[in-house]
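Final report, Chapter 2: Outcomes

The project's central promise was a pipeline that accepts a single protein chain and returns its three-dimensional structure in a standardized token representation, suitable for archiving and comparison. That pipeline is now operational. To close this chapter, we reproduce one record exactly as it appears in the project archive, with the input sequence first and the structure output second.
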Amino acid sequence: MDRLSTEVRIRSWGGVSRGNIRTIGFHRLYRVRVCRECGTMLRTYDGTDDIQGNIVRYIQDCPVMTFRHSHQHVSDVYTRCKSDLNESGLTILDFASMTPVTVSTFELGLPENGDFIMDGPFDEPDEKFLKRQQVAYDPSK
């Protein structure tokens, strides 16, 4: 299987270099890993006596980005509109899709692996999943 999250790599020419792209914020997605061939939710098992298993779940943070010259203006607009967006049930991803100078990795389909996206957070605290993911992908820590 591939990694659960990948760094966004931007190949750039001219004025669109990594230094000219700024992050407005992140939207946290709660995902469930599925088989690419049949769509069945994947499970992990704790030994031969475990017949039910645990569904493989992970957290993915999707950055919302803009160009450096628009960053301050877009950030100010988002800060002013944040409470109105929340009241309307909209997220920073919706803000990114409504704003022509912002884009999110979710809109771009990066990374697109076909996993299910949950409606809300998992029952366990986020720290449990983030710590497990850090150990899985950076064993030196």
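Archive annotation: Residues 23-129 form one domain.
This record, like all others produced under the grant, will remain available to the consortium after the project formally closes.
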